[in-house]
C-alpha cells in the first residue's frame, strides 16, 4: 500500500470564526454552515487512520465547541500552531502533537535519497532549512493573498486556496512538480 496516500496537509479552517466568512469572502451563509461543510469536505477525503498535518488557525471559538468539531473529524491530527489556537490547545488530547514548526520526512522513492523533506510552518518563509537542496515548504496564514512564486518549492495549503479540502501528499507533489525551481548553487 502507498503510505503517501494516507498523508494530508491543510490549514486555516477557522472553525467557529464568523468574521472569516467576510474577511476571505467564503461562500457560506453562516458560521454553522461553514463548519459543517468544512467537516464534510475533510471527512470525504480523510479516513480514521490517515495523518493530517494542519498548519494552523484551526478555529476561533469556545473550547467546548472546538471539542465537538474535533470529535467529528477523521484522522490523526498533527497541529502546527498558528495565531488562532486557543480553543484547539484547550483540547490537546485530540492532537498527536502541537508544535510551532516541523520538519517532515516522507518516504518517496522518487525523492532524493528516497525521502522528501518538507518544512511545515503556519507562516510563509523566503528561505528555510535545506531550501537550496530541494526541501519543500508548506504554509498557511495568508488565505491565498500571497502570490505563488513558481520558482520556489513552497505554497499555501490553506483551505481558501483548495476548495476547502485537505491536500494529499501526491497532490502536493504534483503542484511542486510544476514549479521551475533550480538549485541556487549548482555548478555552472
TrEMBL record:
Q: Which SUPFAM superfamilies does the annotation name?
A: Metallo-dependent phosphatases
- According to its UniProt record, what is one Pfam family this protein matches? Metallophos_2
Ranges for domain Calcineurin-like phosphoesterase come to: 10-144
Task: List all membrane-crossing ranges.
Answer: none
Entries under InterPro entries matching the protein: Calcineurin-like_PHP_lpxH, Metallo-depent_PP-like
Q: Which family does it belong to?
A: Belongs to the metallophosphoesterase superfamily. YfcE family.
Spell out the protein name for this chain. Answer: Metallophosphoesterase family protein
